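Suppose you are handed a protein chain with no further information: no name, no annotation, nothing but its sequence. What can you learn? This example shows the usual starting point.
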Amino acid sequence: MPLKKRFGLLSLLSGAFAIPIAMIATYLQSVYRPATGAVLQWLEKMGFVRQSDVSAPLLQVLSLFPDLEKLGLVKPVVFVSGVPEMTEIGALSLNDGRAISLLLMLSGLLALVSIGAALWAEYRREPTPLASAGYICGVLALALVWPLAGLVSAIAGIAAVLVLRYQREHQGGDPISARDGL
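A reasonable first move is to predict its three-dimensional structure. Written in structure tokens, the prediction is:
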């Protein structure tokens, strides 16, 4: 593939991946009920995650002073191990809320990459079909996750393309070829 079409293709691919990820994330967000673990159960069925093994509780009795225990003066020390306990959430732990947030961030990032690559392709005067389709996919993915951001990016992108094309027509040249001496 010619080197000249690379940003348009990047825009199309990242936009094409952003839309289904945004659709999945918004669907999971709409059906998500806190503390059910539904998303993680689904991921476990698919084989992406597995639940940690929890062993049965183990009860240990330690007699330090057996003679004094018989007299009732001291009680034995009891240790319990293997009991589930509440601990602080680790930085890399995954729960339903975080999984949905990661999907939303990934779709937003792919949408922004798609929009940026399409605008850069327009600036470099690459063929517009790939870049245009990628830009539209990026805006649609962004609109699925954040509707106002999708609308603003659509309007800003149209304005940017109009400014780039106006400058090209009235300044008489390609900014890339003029700068590189091509």
